[in-house]
Amino acid sequence: MPKIPGINHKQAIRALERAGFHIIRQGKKHVVMSDSTRFLTILRNNPINAFTMGGIVNDAGLTEQDFKKLE
Questions:
Q1: Quick one: 25 exposed, middle or buried, by C-beta within 10 A (0-12, 13-18, 19+)?
Q2: pLDDT tens digit sequence for 39-69
Q3: Are 18 and 27 in contact (CB under 8 A)?
Q4: What is the DSSP letter of 61?
Q5: How far apart are CA 32 and CA 1, in angstroms?
Q6: Which of 4, 14, 61, 64 is deepest in the core (most CB within 10 A)?
């Protein structure tokens, strides 16, 4: 699993929006995004844990390099 350290949750949300995901709902602790086939839950932690962010990127169907290009 890739490790992507030091990512702010707002930065991650913007990058995922560029990848075709949109926000379904927002809560105090989580943001749920979807691209009509996959659902992602992003924590509102700053920064997001490197292993957690790596898992989110994997679940989105992206590689670490693809995600870094979207940032």
A1: exposed
A2: 999 999 899 999 999 999 999 999 999 999 9
A3: no
A4: T
A5: 21
A6: 4
> 43 forms bridges with which residues in the sheet?
30
**Can you give the pTM of this predicted structure?**
0.91
Q: Please check whether residue 54 is in contact with residue 3, taking contact to mean a CB–CB distance below 8 angstroms.
A: yes
Q: Which of 23, 28, 16 is nearest to 53 (CA)?
A: 16
Pull the structure tokens for residue 37.
Answer: 């086939």
Please tell me the predicted confidence (pLDDT) of residue 19.
95
How far is 2 from 59, CA to CA, in rounded Å? Answer: 12
5: left (phi over 0), alpha (psi -120 to 50) or beta: beta
